[in-house]
Design goal:
351 residues; alpha/beta; Rossmann fold; 12-stranded mixed sheet; 12 helices; 36% helix; 18% strand; globular; AB_hydrolase_sf; monoacylglycerol lipase activity; hydrolase; Hydrolase
Amino acid sequence: MSSTELPSAPATANVLPKVATVRVAEGERLRSVGLPGITLTVRSRPPAREGLPPALYVHGLGGSSQNWSALMEQLEGDVDCEAVDLPGFGDSPPPDDGDYSITAHARAVIRYLDASGRGPVHLFGNSLGGAVTTRVAAVRPDLVRTLTLVSPALPEIRVQRTAVPTALLAVPGVTALFTRFTRGWTAEQRVRGVMHLCYGDPGRVTPEGFRNAVEEMERRQQLPYFWDAMTRSARGLVNAYTLGGQHALWRQAERVLAPTLLIYGGRDQLVGYRMCRRAARTFRDSRLLSLPDAGHVAMMEYPEVVARACRELLAEAEAGEPVAVGRGADGAGVRSAAAGEDEAVTENAGS
């Protein structure tokens, strides 16, 4: 494994950097890691003290390691944080073989963990990254200490109407049609659309956060492989939904041994909130945090609330004893919290 420190644009930059650089928040570092067939960009924060357990964060479709910056800052005193840009996303170039399947993304995560020797890690995944990390935890339990899934993209029989356009990216020809149709859209328009789709309340995004997202959108649109990575990854996710037998994602979720924290948003327009119950029943050692006001990226909307739940999971894992949360009829720990509240209200998982 080869590793190279990457140049990065300062957080206060007013001029858009060249394509080769990305925004890095204060206290973060980027490095490029060469592995067989792939090169990954890894974002990290120095731990608050030596000896903290390692954690790895995996983003969703169209996202990047930046999606985890807020939560990484919250947890820097609890874990040694690293977030990876999947191949073709963020600042990671496309994979050599052009494979963007869920299995290929999971293989990239496994290769990095094997090469770095950081496992077992506290593994985090959002959306597509949730499907990827579920597969990693199922096939390589030795690499995963705990698993935290934020709106994981696991198969749904009835897909929400608001999620259909994203799924359509997997259909041949649709991406080319969409890019022609939206050719005149500005980066600001695209970012507003993404935020309305992914946030429960887009108004929670600060003006600075919006400007940073626009700069990142402008940077990504300059990449020649931007739409190809999006399209092929969407297709890989849809294909994963059709797999049966031991490769089926829900079957693999049943095989996960690691203590698992499930986080779902009541205003999620991409992953059905109703799926939280099935997930809580399927993952054998699960606890569920329900955030009625959150959308698809709860770790970006409510990082403090998510961090509290993560700390409980970490404490449980270190102590080897279950956290005292409510248990439903199926045995799954469940909490429902208003995003602004300090105390969670216990629900019954069987209701």
